[in-house]
Write a structure and sequence with these properties.
The protein is an alpha/beta fold. The chain is about 30% helix and about 25% strand. It is built from 14 helices and 24 strands. The radius of gyration is 25 Å and the shape is globular.
Length: about 500
């Protein structure tokens, strides 16, 4: 591939090494594009990316020694005297990488209907809802998100919510090859800040909600920066579908360049949920509701609470933009399930048990307050906290569970290099700020057994924190541990 064909959509100059001598990119042949110095080969275009712990610019001389075709850099690099390897100078090499990757893989987003979802909560669930709904209407949909990447029948474990731009473009190219006509993806604030989703325009951008999160070193300096990064999606999409009830929606949409549709419960939104009725049966929680506005239909979802309705409204709005009918949307909503996100596991006709990924105080409070609306006999919360992470998260989660659950079972999560007992003691510190009743059981399987064996008529039991994870990390080793399997083992042993 000719270098000039990769350099579209951003400002650049091409020089011979560190000299002022310019090079015509149409005369440079490129065999491959890489951003890992270990993968540099003769003829490669090496992208110098500056990360949190390593700066690819330090490998410029190595690229020359390995006879790279050219490098992309956003600041000066050290090269041997007399080196005339083409250096593509850009303002931001991450930004350039997104456009270069799109061109290298043949601009796959132009062959797909692209849907990007950003927000603090609800991204993962909503991506699966949308995928299920569109597949039910006859589309073939790829998915990129926190849990996995789905390409046809292939499921690939995800490392980041939004992959680096090179991998994102690679995945989309594979989706095109697999016959997909659309892709739905989670777009994190980090992904937007680091330009991972640049290089194309989304057909639909979605905003679910926003609360202070991901603020700190190597993330966002403050809440305003967090909101700004979320809002970048709406300068990179054709249609923006937004939660009109969120108090920060106007901040998110500031400077937007897209057509906007809103959803929610308030009267001024374009798609509104009305006539809510809660479903509460043993082993099943959900909501009935009707919609009013852009599409009128009756819906049933088998996950609890108003936030589930928000997720469903968002998915309905997307499906409407695809031309789906209420008859295609309704059954997909009813049957949609997401692993580890309010995932119901049937263990008894007397009480309800579920698995959820809530692993911080904000998410746990949202989940527990939602479940309280179903007026359980008792709301029981089982959780632990990860090791080598903030103690404040443990204090906060202990306090939240003590305040909103009727009974808490404190157990182990991923202790990593800490002792589980020490983590549990920190959680207990938060618990003691409340009047909440609790028990400490270090072994997670035994904690789950205790919850099941002591479940009472009308109880709702939440296993929080692990969600879709199928491992437990101890002393640097990930051991297989899937809560669904633990539950089944316990039930078999109880027989």
């Amino acid at each position: 591939m000719i270098l000039s064909k990769l350099l579209d959509g951003f400002k650049f100059t091409v020089t011979a090494g560190n000299t002022d001598k310019t090079v015509d990119p149409a005369t440079v042949e490129i065999k491959d594009v890489v951003n890992d110095n270990r993968k540099i080969e003769e003829g490669s275009l090496f992208l110098c990316i500056q990360g949190a712990n390593f700066d690819g610019h330090s490998c410029a001389a190595e690229a020359f020694e390995k006879k790279a075709g050219a490098i992309v850099a956003c600041h000066d690099v050290e090269l041997p005297d007399g080196c005339e390897m083409p250096v593509v100078r850009v303002e931001d090499s991450r930004y350039a990488m997104a456009f270069i990757s799109a061109a290298y893989f043949g601009h796959p987003a132009e062959k797909l209907k692209t849907i990007g979802i950003t927000g603090t909560k609800g991204k993962t669930t909503t991506t699966y809802l949308i995928r299920d709904m569109l597949q039910n209407a006859g589309h073939k949909v790829g998915l990129i998100g926190t849990i996995e990447v789905i390409i046809g029948d292939e499921h690939i474990h995800a490392e980041n919510t939004t992959p680096e731009s090179y991998m994102l473009q690679y995945y989309m190219s594979k989706m095109v090859e697999a016959g997909c006509d659309s892709v739905v993806m989670e777009v994190s604030s980090q992904g937007l800040m680091l330009h991972r989703s640049q290089g194309f325009t989304f057909d639909i951008g979605i905003f679910t909600n926003i609360e202070p999160d991901h603020i700190g070193p190597n993330e966002h300096v403050d809440f305003e920066d967090y909101m700004h990064c979320k809002g970048l999606l709406f300068k990179q999409c054709k249609v923006g579908i937004c939660n009109g009830d969120d108090v920060h929606v106007d901040d998110i949409l500031e400077g937007h360049t897209c057509k906007v549709e809103t959803y929610g419960f308030s009267e001024n939104v374009d798609l509104r949920a009305i006539n809510l009725a809660y479903i509460h049966k043993p082993g099943e929680l959900g909501v009935f509701f009707d919609t009013d506005g852009l599409i009128n239909m009756h819906a049933e979802i088998r996950t609890p609470g108003k936030f589930s309705v928000y997720n469903a409204l968002c998915a309905i709005a997307v499906a409407r933009n695809f031309g789906c009918t209420p008859e295609e949307i309704a059954p997909a909503l009813k049957d949609a399930k997401v692993k580890g996100r309010i995932e119901m596991v049937k263990v008894s006709d007397e009480f309800t048990l579920m698995i959820d990924y809530a692993h911080n105080a904000m998410a746990l409070k949202s989940l527990l307050t939602t479940l309280k609306d179903y007026h359980p006999n008792r709301l029981i919360c089982l959780f632990g906290c990860g090791g080598n992470r903030s103690k404040y998260r443990r204090f906060e989660m202990g306090e939240v569970s003590g305040k909103y659950a009727d009974f808490t079972i404190i157990t182990s999560d991923n202790p990593r290099f800490e002792e589980p007992e020490a983590i549990i003691d920190d959680i207990e510190t938060g618990m003691k700020k409340t009047d909440g009743k609790y028990i400490k059981i270090i072994d997670r399987k035994e904690a789950i057994r205790y919850a099941i064996e002591n479940g009472e008529q009308g109880d709702i039991i939440v296993l929080a924190g692990k969600g879709h994870e199928d491992y437990q990390e101890i002393k640097g080793v990930k051991y297989h541990m899937d809560e669904r399997e633990l539950i089944q083992e316990i039930l078999d042993e109880m027989k």
